[in-house]
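// run 5 | inverse folding | seed 20
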């Protein structure tokens, strides 16, 4: 029987999974907000569904698997706000449901390690909304839910090279600040591994092995490009938007032991150096 994935809010990370599943004969229905994006999805082998707009319920009833990438809005999960009853009605029939969350749910740990069992103490409104959304999805009886807490996402067309080249990259220094990050291809392989080894109720951190200060990543990108490393700026005095400054409200190192031990994942890009090397090679046609 053909497996059918309903990808709600089909975007960058979800397309990475689709690229792995389509060659295996999966049917993938992806929601998007505009006719233009719908045509782009169709060109990639995805059956587009414009939502909000079209009725999502038939796709829910048809799906064997659901992945939702939709972020909370106004403190609520938009998917459950519209179709919670339909998802609940199909909960025990579905084989796997994935919710893409964020490591922001852990809040600030002063540069210390967090695991999936660490307390959820978000420091930002964005993180608090994610904690609430995770709980809302988990409250649906019988739903085979798997939560994926993603670190900072990068990959093709989402790396630091463009900013380094055009001179807009910044090296903001905040003492003790570290971030975890993950390559989009590693997100895709984690999701596929979970589909193949479902464990309803599980949560997984999705990140690489090497939490690092953000200024190190920019410096390495500049070195690869052979351009001057941008000067450092002190966090306390740097001009930044409130959104940019909010990312520095949390410092933690995220453990990825569970995706390795439980899902058997072997990261393609275990650190930012391997990831940036591969991105530059891809840009260069290598």
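// decoded
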């Amino acid at each position: 029987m053909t497996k059918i994935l309903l990808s709600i809010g089909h975007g960058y990370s979800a397309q990475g999974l689709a690229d792995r599943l389509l060659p295996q004969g999966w049917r993938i229905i992806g929601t998007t907000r505009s006719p233009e994006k719908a045509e782009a999805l169709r060109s990639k082998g995805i059956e587009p569904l414009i939502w909000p707009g079209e009725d999502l319920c038939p796709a829910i009833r048809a799906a064997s698997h659901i992945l939702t990438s939709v972020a909370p809005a106004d403190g609520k999960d938009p998917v459950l706000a519209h179709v919670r009853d339909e998802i609940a009605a199909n909960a025990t029939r579905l084989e796997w449901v994935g919710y893409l969350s964020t490591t922001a749910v852990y809040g600030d740990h002063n540069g210390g390690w967090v695991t999936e069992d660490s307390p959820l103490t978000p420091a930002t409104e964005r993180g608090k909304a994610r904690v609430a959304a995770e709980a809302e999805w988990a409250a649906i009886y019988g739903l085979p839910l798997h939560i994926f807490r993603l670190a900072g996402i990068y990959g093709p067309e989402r790396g630091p090279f463009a900013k380094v080249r055009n001179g807009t990259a910044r090296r903001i220094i905040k003492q003790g600040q570290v971030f975890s990050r993950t390559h989009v291809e590693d997100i895709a392989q984690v999701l596929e591994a979970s589909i193949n080894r479902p464990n309803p109720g599980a949560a997984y951190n999705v990140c690489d092995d090497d939490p690092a200060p953000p200024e190190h990543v920019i410096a390495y990108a500049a070195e690869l490009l052979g351009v001057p490393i941008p000067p450092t700026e002190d966090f306390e005095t740097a001009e930044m938007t409130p959104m940019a400054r909010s990312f520095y409200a949390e410092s933690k190192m995220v453990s990825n032991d569970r995706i390795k031990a439980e899902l058997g994942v072997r990261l393609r890009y275990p650190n930012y150096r391997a990831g940036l090397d591969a991105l530059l090679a891809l840009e260069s046609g290598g």
